Write a sequence for this structure.
């Protein structure tokens, strides 16, 4: 669905194939993509409705900040069972930050706009799409807000 949508809108993009990876940090390392350019999509529930929060891979979503920005009653991470069925064309946890294709709002950290390009999961744990941030912004129309909080801790094995 994503590639058809990009093609239909005449968007230039690159697909990067990589070995299977399930974490944004792992994907960034495999594809040699700086963590600040790799966007991860985090599913959140905002007053009972699914939404996407998009932050650089090396950061986490500041739920309190999102709640305050939206003047929402509640904002919490969505459980896998709450969103698995909403993305029939994607492997669980690999959905691209294109909420407009799935009928949901997208909130993106404003720091993502600082780079000319954005890279993100393309619906599988084996592919990444890289495209111009301006094209992403024009297609998705995310709310750009300060959304990222402290870096994700990587635990040594």
């Amino acid at each position: 669905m994503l590639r058809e949508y990009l093609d239909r809108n005449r968007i230039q993009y690159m697909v990067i194939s990589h070995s299977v990876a399930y974490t944004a940090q792992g994907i960034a390392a495999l594809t040699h993509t700086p963590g600040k350019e790799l966007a991860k999509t985090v599913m959140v529930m905002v007053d009972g409705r699914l939404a996407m929060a998009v932050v650089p891979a090396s950061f986490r979503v500041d739920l309190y900040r999102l709640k305050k920005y939206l003047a929402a009653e509640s904002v919490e991470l969505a459980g896998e069972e709450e969103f698995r069925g909403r993305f029939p064309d994607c492997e669980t946890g690999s959905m691209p930050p294109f909420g407009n294709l799935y009928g949901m709002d997208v909130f993106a950290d404003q720091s993502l706009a600082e780079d000319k390009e954005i890279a993100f999961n393309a619906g599988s744990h084996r592919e990444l799409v890289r495209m111009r941030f301006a094209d992403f912004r024009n297609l998705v129309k995310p709310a750009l807000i300060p959304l990222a909080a402290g870096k994700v801790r990587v635990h040594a094995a």
Notes: The chain has a mean pLDDT of 87.
